[in-house]
User: Fold Protein kinase domain-containing protein from Laccaria amethystina LaAM-08-1.
Amino acid sequence: PARLCTSLNGRRYKILRKLGEGVSSSTWLAYNKKGEERYMYLAAKILTIDATHRHNAGKLRELEFLTEIEACNFLSLLRDHFIEQRPMGKHICLVQDLYSTSVSSLRRSPSKTLLPQMVRNVFSILVDALAQLHAMHIAHIDVKLDNLMFGNSLYYSDKDLQQYLDANPAEIEGQAQLEPGGESYLILKFQPIPNGYVYDTSAFEAELIFI
Assistant:
């Protein structure tokens, strides 16, 4: 249901670009028209119609678990959630804080590996986050590097992020139609917010990583 410059949740959120996509959802950068400082830009995760059906049937429980997580270290908070009705069906939308790329993106190093200081800090954060989930009787069943996201550390303020977005607008890859003769829509390139980390980040900088 998301397209460039369209609105969600009664025009509260405006879609600015596509951050990424998975099998059961896509994630978009959204401008929060009612947001406070540092919460003007958020990530809107929009589930597919099938994933929404599975949530409603109790087969998926992501929304249920997210509503149980409050202020915790290294765990993404649910800022808002709602249903978007579209001609093809309903979509659950989960609004969370804006993150950057995944830890997996750093595996593009020449050796396809990370230095010990990076691995040590990432694992420390991961174990801390999992321990907090387990304390709430929640088991994460899809722990992998693709699901470990770096925090948005380069553009901490809304002003800095706005300047970056102005200098790097949404990029279009092409057009498509949902059905022959139907309405066409733009296919957007994945454009996650960058971070300052590289595969050979120094030991000092590695200690400052948050995911």
Notes: The beta strands are 7-8, 13-21, 25-32, 41-47, 78-86, 89-96, 99-102, 149-151, 172-177, 184-188. The chain is about 25% helix and 30% strand. Residues 116-135 form the longest helix (20 residues). Residues 1-97+155-191 form a domain with the Phosphorylase Kinase; domain 1 fold (CATH 3.30.200.20).
